[in-house]
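Hi support team,

I submitted a single chain yesterday and got back a structure, but I'm not sure I'm reading the token output correctly. Could someone confirm the output below corresponds to the sequence I sent? I've pasted both exactly as they appear in my results page.

Thanks,
R.
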Amino acid sequence: MLSVLVIAQVLSGLGLAAGITVGALLAEEMLGSTGLAGVPAALFTGGAALGAVGIGRTCQRWGRRPGLALGYLTAALGSLGVVVAAARGDVPLLFLSLLVYGAGTATNLLARYAGADLASPARRGRAVSTVLFATTFGAVAGPNLVSVTGDLAHSWAVPRLAGPFVLAAVAYAVAAAVLWCLLRPDPLLLARTRAAAQPPPSAPPPPPPEEAPTGRARPRGVVIGATVMILTQLVMIAIMTMTPVHMRAHGHDTHTAGLVIALHVGAMFLPSPLTGLLVDRLGRTRVAAASGVVLLAAGLLAALAPAHSVPALAAALVLLGLGWNFGLVSGTAMVTDSVPLATRAAVQGVVDVGVSVAGATGGMASGLVVAAGGYSVLAIAGGLLAVTLVPLLALAAPPRAVPAHLEAAQAIGEAEDDHGSVSGHGSHH
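Hi R., thanks for writing in. Yes, this is the structure output for that exact sequence:
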């Protein structure tokens, strides 16, 4: 079952890479404005928000298999629409198609929850990370195929920058077919069946501190996990979107920008197994706080990197991807821990709506910020916003319980103080 999800994620990674790599460049070319180059990222992440609602509800009602397959099929249609729009120079169709294409982003991210459906709380971070890790192969290969797919598109009298969307259409369609045909039994439906088949113990033990009691959600955990993912998504999308535009404005070609984005995407997904282990061993909150610190470092390096230095920009984008990975895996574990199986898919869909809206906001704002203040301003602002996670998580952390032996010692000390006070008071008389 997990192997089927892995295959689908590899394919969807190819589709995901198209929008990340050339979306902003295609918009800049068709619209003739750097300030509007962030529109594609805003549209396909906005489409991801809409897709997360529909896909989440479909999964909640009928299971992961039909929900995820429908999402990828929708994304394939959106990809074809982008190709047609580019060939015709049709800007309204381009915008509509990018919105539909965003369903692929929503589905790719929602698939990580399918990996956690059958996992125990102690292994949930690693289960999520396995599915995310699989995306690496397609998402890294995609940007490196920009030239090849561009040549193919050009041979069909289609603009070269539309080439990656041809690949996306095929990859998303095959991913939908793989899930529909092979994801059996459905992981969410199977998890519900197993949970219903377990006889309730006569005296149920208290649930683990990070797991929601059966049938009851923990809103605080959902809010914290969602906040982590929303902030990291906003910052990552904003800086990533404008990096190819920044590079091309300083003389770098599309292939070089694609290489930097490939390294970035690799850092988004490749560390997932290690991140999952850290989340399970060190705790969700510590890894979430680390994401803010890493994203700050990414923003500062991107701002200070010389525009002609590809290694420096690549290092900044690698840190950007790593910080996002920390935030996504830890936030996903927090949310999944906090909701019961009965409502899990629906809540996860709503959370991912917020994540997608944040991405749309970051994409839309990124072009405007760069046009007004430059790429360095965008990068520094993003890093500073991300590091606010550290104090936010510290404030949201529950008070630590006093260990039993210290509590007993404290009680004895207080009793002795009271006794001394009474004795002293009596001696005055």
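A quick pointer for reading it: The longest helix spans residues 219-249. Let us know if anything else looks off.

Best,
Support desk
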